[in-house]
Amino acid sequence: MLANLVDRDLAPAIGKAIVSLLVVRRKELLDDGKGEKVWLGIWSDPVREALRSEELRQRVVTYVLPGLLKPSCQGFQVFCESLGLSADGGVGKIGDADLGALLCVLKAGKELGFVGELGDSETTGKASKAPAVPLSSELVAPLLGHAFPHIRVSALNLVIQSAAITRPLSRGALFLLKTMLPSLHAETDAEIRDQTISAIRNLIERIAQSSYASEKELKNVQQKLRSGNRPTPDDIRKMIQLDSRIGDAKEFCGWYIGFLETLLRPGSNYQRCIMGLRALGFLARSGMDASLTESAFAALPGNGSIISRGEPFKKNFFKWPEFSKEMRVFSPGVKKVLLEAMSNPFEDVRAMSSEIVRLDPQWDKEEITGILDRGLKAMNETGRARDSDGVARSVALLYEVVKRGDLTFNEGDRIWGTKISVADSETMGLGVIQWVLDVIEQEYLGVAASDLARAVKERPVHGLFEAVGRILGSNDKVYLAEGSEGATAEWTKIHERIFKACEEIWRITKAPLCFDSPEGHVPSEIDEEDEDMNTQTVMSYSWRAIKESSALLGIVLAKAPAESLNQTDFGRGGKLLLQQLSDIRHRGAFSAVSPSFVALCTRCFKSPDPALQELPRAWLRRNLESVMEKSSAITRRSAGLPFLIVGVLASEIDPNHPLLSSTFARLDEIAVLPPVPSKNGEKIDLPQVHALNCIKFLFTDARMSPLVVPYIGRGLELAVSCFGSEIWAIRNCGVMLFTALTNRLFGLRKSRNEFTSNFTTRSFFEKYPTVRVVLLENLRDKVGRLEGGEAASVEMVYPALSLLARMEVAPEYEGMEEFRPLILECMRSRIWKVREMAARAFTALVGPKQAVDVIRNLLSVGPEKQNILHGNLCAVRALLERRVRQAVLEEQEAGEVYGNISLTFQARFQDLVERNQCSVTRYVILQILTANATPLLVSEGLAECVHGFISSLRSVTEECNTSSMVGRSLLKEQLVAFILTCAPPAKFSNVFLSLLGEPDEEVVLYSLTHLLSLPTIPNLDASIQTSLWTLATTHPWPLLVSNTLNVLHRLSKTLPFTATPENIRHLESVLNNPPTEPIKETALALLGPLTTSTSTLTTLLPHLRAAAHEDSPFTLRHAALTSFSALAPLLKLTRSAPNAEELIPAYALLFDYLNDDDDELRILAAELTQLILPGDGEILHLPLVAAEKLALELPRCYPGSKALLQEAITRITGGMDARETWKRVATRDTILFRREKQNLWVHAPWAVSIWAAVAEMVAARLDGAEMEMELAGLKAWVEAAGECVAEMERREGSRATVGGWASDEGVEVFCTRVEAGRRLCGL
Description:
Layout: H1 11-31, H2 36-52, H3 57-63, H4 65-69, H5 73-82, H6 96-111, H7 120-123, H8 137-144, H9 149-160, H10 171-184, H11 190-226, H12 233-263, H13 270-286, H14 293-298, E1 305-308, E2 311-314, H15 332-341, H16 347-357, H17 365-382, H18 385-403, E3 414-415, E4 418-419, H19 428-450, H20 452-458, H21 462-473, H22 477-481, H23 485-513, H24 535-559, H25 567-583, H26 587-606, H27 610-629, H28 641-651, H29 658-671, E5 676-677, E6 684-685, H30 687-700, H31 712-722, H32 728-746, H33 761-767, H34 769-782, H35 791-805, H36 820-827, H37 832-842, H38 851-858, H39 866-890, H40 894-914, H41 919-931, H42 933-936, H43 940-952, H44 956-961, H45 968-982, H46 988-996, H47 1001-1013, H48 1024-1034, H49 1038-1051, H50 1061-1072, H51 1077-1090, H52 1094-1107, H53 1114-1125, H54 1128-1131, H55 1144-1153, H56 1159-1172, H57 1183-1197, H58 1202-1213, H59 1218-1226, H60 1244-1259, H61 1264-1270, H62 1272-1292, H63 1305-1321
């Protein structure tokens, strides 16, 4: 019954039934005098197994556990102990599955009141009853840093949740949360981030409710004392306790806000930023900051309220104590990082930060104009999307705060040198829009019209178009808010300016975007010798400008009030969008214009004005005419023509869709037109290509998906009919249409060899009967011509066969009989690929019950007819993959089915394998036997044939040389795989050794490759290492050497591994001068297991460090870490004995691996850290936690080590000269397509703080003179760096300026290094 909980619909009923039955059984047992343990024995084992299952765990926790645990506190305690919980509340060495199960049980027990709180003695009275299971920091703290996310989240919920939400968290619990929350705010998995944020919401709610209840209770006690009652010691103690609880809550809230600020500082990775923003947004709406109550909910639907019990209340808004009036979520630091995050590289971060920061009601004019000035400067310098999007969001923020009255401007105020006027209080927001349009016209379009080169380099306009679009498209209230009678005329003027700006930018950028050459176009007026100007930069400027301007135009045409637009405006806008879609050749640009055209058509169709309703129909007619007019230009999938047609059809609101019907008919009519040569006979106008591309787009566009179902049959018929065209362009379009339709019908194939589907031949052809007729006619027409080698015949036959191959057999369907002779004829074709596809299609003619007999007939063909034999063998292979397995699953015994097939292979083995001289057919038969060796070789007769054949082989090379030249390489590779797969286990080592001794190096390579492809390497003699080492050190072929080293590395994990000093020296020489990268990687991975001493480790370490660089490819970093992991015995740390100082760089390198960009490598590094840290290593830690534990363990294992101190100092300073580092980070990179850093995970400020703590711990063990000597270099670095920062502050202003010079990631990290160095040096 527990296994059936996977069914979501049945789970509640099953859980209820299980609980009811077991509760009744418990009562019966207790009545009989039997204890709880007997009852637990009935269900504990199966429930424990279900809890171990990831699939069942949550259902068991929801529907079963509460009912089973509730009856008995004692039973709960016994069940926890069975899962590995000790009597003192700790856990020993238990598996991760058991640990996850235990946490689920503890969570359920906590909800029932059976599990205590962290620090119970702090939050409960002495007389309180002790819980059945106490909760201790020793249990929870390690689990909050566990490597497996479900364990971390469960542990967090265990700390936060309580049966009574007003019960305060103890000071110990809050301290533990402060310690562990940083690592929990860097989750890489989106689902785990959701769960963590949910837990944070519960935490904030509990803090709010418990502190509010404590304050209320405190006020009651104080009120009692004001009545004249003498305070008792209990009253005094209670007041102190309640006040302490409130103070703890206030202090934690302040800490958490400050912590969230650190997550958003420049350089933080995506995970930290997004977690910080989500938590900050929740805090702003939680009521923690009383000053935000109105602004936080004003922008939400219904003012953020929902109805509960007939009364409105604000969702996620909690009651807080009085300290909420002092709490400030938007502190200066938080506001600064939020504003700077609007130019973050990640779009999610930019969007969320702009949404959150607008909740702040307090704004300063200089603050917001400063961020705009600096944003425009950055956008002009770089032209990057992040900077332009940041400007757009900053302008939208300016509009928001001005519109709601939080900020006002005076007459004559300017931003970016352009006057802004918002004197009229009724139309405050219009002034911002007018200011943006002024800047566009004067500063950007004016420059572009006179000097395009300067505009491309210094005036990218797309960000400002986006800004206006964000204002007008933010919500439907924009026009309403500015909708007074006086504003209508202003809106009309604004719209006219927008139209003119869009037309002007189209005029300027039309040439690059409409240029036919795929290399792009640079206008003649631009200097070709200018290194900063090329087709890429010009195209980027152009398509981004058109993308944002067309989006703005679409917003105006879709949302502007009818009073401010007229029919001419709609026609004008439609004409511009039509021009762009029909003329643009850049796919990114015309796909960006399409949404605006769809929005325009939608509004016209919905308009009550008949004249507007007619506009899309007129555009559609014009678009269909373009199909014929542009018939000579057939490149780039017909460019924007499909978007034009689908744009109108997707907007049609008539439920009968008459436009779709007429359009498809017209496109169909054009598609079947016979091609007509042009007058000069050199070029053909092909409107059929445009028509077919448009039809394909109808079937692939998601908006049209449910509407075009009735046309699928005709689409398939049309596609198949195109296969026979004499013109390649039409055949190609037919294949693309055919592929789009088959993918829609059958789904995308996961691999090239997957041909299964849910359609049977009967269901498919009954649904699309015309397709069957067209397939038959074309196959009948073309199959006979295959022998002539006509390309058109092959191009028609192959897709038709592939369609048949995608269908499942319907054994009683007679409609396939007409296909049988055609498919059989294709199986005899002289064209290899046709034979293979026909063989797959043949499976649609054979039912599972017929498979064995058909295989027997197919194998009866002799080797004298090789084409027929090859087609038959391919059919046997396909039948074994599809039909034989169905036969076994449906009704027949596997042994009987495969036994009969084995007898057939046994009877034909000599003719098809031993006597056959064709390499290709031998390759296929050996491939079949190899792939099905396990079920087929159960038959003793076939096994004897196979083993006898293998034993009789003198050499793979000689055996292959007796076969035909064509396909010999395929046969050689397959014969090696056949020998190694079918060789008896006892002889495998000798067989493999004999293959390594083959003179043909290809045979040796295939042997090694096959061995590496196996999940586990079979038992090999240790002596085989000698042959492998000889190959690795002497063979000249790099690919073979690489595979040999890989095999040696695999063997090092299973065999006693040895290598001579010469072998080791050879590997070291390979690392210094690698022939190829794969050899370098395998040699590096292999040196780890061969490193047995500290001295050899120091030789290997530079190579490991070089490979760990973020610019190294993943495969090289993985190989280095694999090698590193083999050094765990040498790296084991201990506090009881001295540790070799030569190993300190190795631990520092492991710290780097724990902060690698790839999650897989971080986990591997965490596993290595688990092995080398002191103790038993019971828990695998999260890489961030493991990195911190490793770093802080080093000062304990190397007390007073000067080498460790210098390593820490190097990590603090970055190991470079202060002035050189400052010059590098302070120079702004303005390259548009710059190379981004490769490690997006590492958080440099956090790493600096960790190494600063390490340095402080080591320095504390040194005497004054020693410490001063060791810190002298750091002190000099800090002084030089401080001078650089001070000089910048004198020149550019305060570091605290929003968006200023300190907002760059490199500068932020540099300043963090300086501050850490100052603290360490006591400056």
